[in-house]
Amino acid sequence: MKKLKIVDFCTFPENMIISLFEDHMDPQRFERIRAEKTSSMEEKCELVRDADILLSDPAHMNPIPRQIIEAAKNLKLIQCYTIGYDDIDTKYARLRGIPVANSAGILSKPIAEYTIMAAIYLSKSIEYARSELIKGNWVQSELMNGPKMPLEFGSLTLGIIGCGSIGQEVARVAGIFGTRILYHNRSRLNISTENTLGLKYSPLEDVLRLSDVVSVNVPLTDETRGMIGADEIALMKKGAILINTARGEVVDVHALANALKSGHLRGAAVDVFENEPNLRGCPLFGLENVILTPHCSAISPMALVRCPPKVMENLNKIYVVEPPVRVVN
Fold first, then answer.
1. Is 29 a catalytic residue?
2. Catalytic status, residue 66
3. In this structure, which CATH number among 3.90.1150.10, 3.30.470.20, 3.30.565.10, 3.40.50.720 belongs to the domain 4-106+301-319?
4. pLDDT tens digits for 138-154?
5. Where are the domains of the chain?
6. What is the reported pTM?
7. Catalytic residue at 24?
């Protein structure tokens, strides 16, 4: 059987990609070629013309739009290194009958750890206590009562919006603390999963209204773009915390900034932004009750270990003419 041609849109250094796949990709089955970010659209279209498989960029800097999918006449699969697929024209791929699959599960642990870390850091008012102490201010009495009083995470209610592999891992870790957990998902999970993770299914409005901490874990789609706007943030408890590790476009950042400035929200953690990495004019800059990180909540050595087997599972299925798994379109 002839080799399948893979065109890889990943923007990571080539030596890093080679080290990831050297023990996983069979050179007798696959030929991998890179589509450089700096190449023109015409060059990329020519490169994919006879491609069997496209690998999308985990950094989302080298997208796969309709024009590229149209040019790939033999295309059988678009495979994501990780979980996000909003840089791929999934609708057009579906019209062409081309599956788009992700590697759900490989990032769940680091993102869940980041989420719980941020929730505890903000609920404990650690940043306020730390910053005041290094100025020489002993603020113990201020922490004894009022809006900055440290809270017990285990006595709070956590709301999870989007309960796929990441949301479920957030729930698993939070459950260790005894935290009450509400969740909202596009479709309800089975009762066994709910019982195992201690989850209670609720409408979105109730999750926002009743939760002390809200974790946003949905993919970016037409339905989720702008999902958490001014009206939704206004529904949240006074003194609640919002954590967004999903996509910047899901949460109205200006509404979030206003809620933080007014004191309606106790704090927020934001790892994702619209127009990354161009963050000029972001209204969250300079606010002291917010954690801002550069889309790094998913980064870990173990995520890199888990990635190649997931990717190769589907590539090998395509080689032996079997349907891929974790198809998102």
1. no
2. no
3. 3.40.50.720
4. 999 999 998 999 999 99
5. 4-106+301-319, 108-292
6. 0.92
7. no
